[in-house]
């Protein structure tokens, strides 16, 4: 499996695949803040907004590619001001047929590496209890903080052998 960081041009080039991934990952489950019954055009519009955000340096998008197929993606939201030392994980999406093989965890770790490079060592996540994402981020060291469903982790420097 390959993990790629997508700039705005790459996001635009992959827009149709990303839109299809979003619909597949949403399935019939909880809507992740999306309107229920999101259409493929709505999903494309969502990704067009993300492309703008990436182009302005407000978001990082990573994608997981396996056997030439886009099987997952996730995002890191970057804010300024008092949030300039932190970042927020968003929309961890893994194709239904590719779940429970560690892809979601690899995507989160890739975004943590991006956060480190950007000097943002506090990472926040939001996940509904029992959603799968909640268990995933807890496994990676995120702990509840503040309101229900909010978690956070301070990134440590990787140990040097
Ligand atoms: C949540 C999601 C991203 C997990 O992706 P994944 O690639 O299957 O996750 P991983 O294989 O890396 O799972 C790592 C660990 O997380 C936990 N986990 C993942 N999915 C889980 C689930 N549905 N129920 C309970 N625990 C789960 C498990 O502890 C798992 O380890 P294990 O498989 O050894 O038991 C995926 O199910 C998904 O896309 N869901 C729909 C979209 C969504 O709700 N995204 C979260 C919004 S931020």
**Whole-number tally of structural domains:** 1
User: Cα-atom Rg, whole angstroms?
Assistant: 15 Å
Shape: globular
- Quick one: biggest sheet? 7 strands, mixed
Overall mean confidence score, pLDDT: 93
Task: Report the order of strands and helices.
Answer: EHHHEEEHEHEE
Q: Reading side by side through the largest sheet, how are the strands ordered? A: 1-2-3-4-5-7-6
Unreliable residue stretches: none
Number of strands: 7
CATH class: Alpha Beta
CATH superfamily: Gcn5-related N-acetyltransferase (GNAT)
Task: Determine the strand fraction and express it as a percent band.
Answer: 25-35%
- First-last Cα distance: 26 Å
CATH topology: Aminopeptidase
Plain-language structure description:
- Strand 2 and strand 3 form a beta hairpin.
- The chain has a single domain, classed as Aminopeptidase (3-Layer(aba) Sandwich), CATH 3.40.630.
- The protein is 35% helix and 27% strand.
- The protein has a seven-stranded mixed sheet, with helices on both faces.
- Helix 2 packs across helix 3.
- The longest helix is centred in the first third of the chain and has 16 residues.
- The protein has five helices and seven strands.
- The mean pLDDT is 93.
- It has 161 residues and is α+β, with helices and mostly antiparallel strands.
- The structure holds coenzyme A.
Comma- or semicolon-separated keywords:
161 residues; alpha+beta; Aminopeptidase; 7-stranded mixed beta sheet; binds coenzyme A
